[in-house]
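Researcher: Good morning. I'm working through a list of sequences from a screen, and I'd like to move beyond sequence-only analysis. For each chain I'm collecting a predicted structure so we can compare shapes side by side. This is the next one on the list. No need for commentary yet; just the structure.
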Amino acid sequence: MLKFRTPIFFTLFLFLFNSTVFANSNLKPEDLDNIQYGCFVKEKEIVFCSEKDISNPDVVVRLPLLKPIVLSNGKRAFRVMATIENNTKHNLYGARVKIYFNKNEENFLDILISEKIIYKGTSSTNRSHLIRSDVAANIPIYNALNEIYLSADTSSINIRLYELIFG
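Model: Good morning. Structure tokens for this chain:
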């Protein structure tokens, strides 16, 4: 009787082990590394941008911060921030970036980067956006972020650079 149960327990163990391994697919910081948006700038105007890898872009926008947090009141939220890498040979004093969290562009976050970014420098993530689950206006964006985070699928994230502020 013991010999008959051993394969059943072994099979059950393998099934449970595999299901828990694949269920743990939360977004990791390295998953965000492949999200970038490069742009060419001519005479301080954006002339071409692409999500594809382009060589020597003047400006590169990345999304290095998409992190879930729990607030002091127990509610959940996400910290989100984009960065700009400046290769324009001019100092930047800010930028306006929109990040879309689904293909039909309903859920987006308008990010204003307001810091000095020197040539060959990158903006910081010290100031980030907090998307709370308990604020009615944020619920669609929060739900889209939560789905992206839980599935670890960044394919529905799109970045658009709308404005560069030069000094």
